[in-house]
Write a structure and sequence with these properties.
about 400 residues, Aspartate Aminotransferase, domain 2, about 20% strand, globular, binds 4'-deoxy-4'-aminopyridoxal-5'-phosphate
Length: about 400
Amino acid sequence: MINIKKIKKEFPASNKSFVYLDSACSALKMKSSADAQMRFLLDYGSCGGKRAVYKNALRVEELYESARSDVANFINSQMDEIVFTSGTTDGFNILANSFKFKTGDEIIISGLEHNSVFLPFYRISKEKGLKLKIIPIKNYQPSFDEFKKLVNKRTRVLCISKASNFFGGTVRTEEIVSYAKKCGIKVFFDCAQYVSSHSIDVKALGADAIAFSGHKIGAPYGTGVLYINDLLYNFLNSSAVGGGTVKDISISNGKIDVRFLNKFYNFEGGIQNYSGAYALSVAIRKLDEISYFEIRKHISSLVKYAVSELNKIDGINIIGDELEEGSIISFTSINKNFSYPDFSMFLSGQSKPVSVRYGKLCADLASINTGIKSVIRLSFFVYNTEDDVNYFIRSLKKYLKLID
Ligand code: PMP
């Protein structure tokens, strides 16, 4: 069972006088991880060891590579399949811009993808003359039958989320992914929402690539992971080369020759966010120590409780499928006086300000494909409690009385 007192010490901002229900955007930050980042910066703070051989640089490198190893263990992959990024958005931009597409190739993405997945592939499809197809959503899940109709010989890539940030629950990907694999399609997973309450096994997922962000699990901003399956490297031409990515460069008789390094080296050009990657690995280790099983149970029970409380209120429509699997509750209201911006301001003005989100939440595809223009979203992480839910529900009732 989660020891909430201990957890709240680990997330100092969760003890402040506000109710934070926006962890789906960014989780409050973890003390062990922030301390590790700070110590790394102040104790070492030098060049990294791929460029220099002095002691400090070698220590930076050692810690950086230990972070890579921790992340690899966490997702059941090999170390050299881990590329550190600045987040999920960065990861999907790298994938879209690095994949060796040929004119006429096709990409399929699920109809609930975040703009950080949709837009990089949209843009590359315009630039390279590719066809971008979108899987329709049925009952808050991408439709397997519709997916099959979209696949053909030119389909190269499928992008799919394990959890939407627009509505609750998780995404059932098994059928779609196993069909895609049979057809030789590379499968890229967005695990940005999923990772905050689920451990990840890239092999069980059948992933050729996954991306997630550190800041959604208590690690510093601007940290993230892109897993690239060993075989997938052959299909990519790194879009982000620079210092540290080359074996050698020669110029002879005006002919320039560059030989690049392989695997993750080729994707981490320039001085890296060594301290951030290290702090991310500390956050992952801490969550593992708390136990993902317990975290999942804790968040599930909060979702269940919040759903039961919301269901007691007239005119609230909760949207999503298998909600207890996820960490988000999104709802709409049928009350014509209910204004989402006003309600959010009202919550913010409570004696304990409540942080929730409203709108399309950067998930325009999910909004278009479900026909739901805007939602109110609550999202939970390990530090939330039933008290947070109760405070929100009381505030919601106060607001509803006000607009009655
Ligand atoms: N995908 C999903 C499902 C998300 O929720 C988010 C963040 N809201 C992203 C991708 C983008 O993540 P980041 O902003 O950390 O790059």
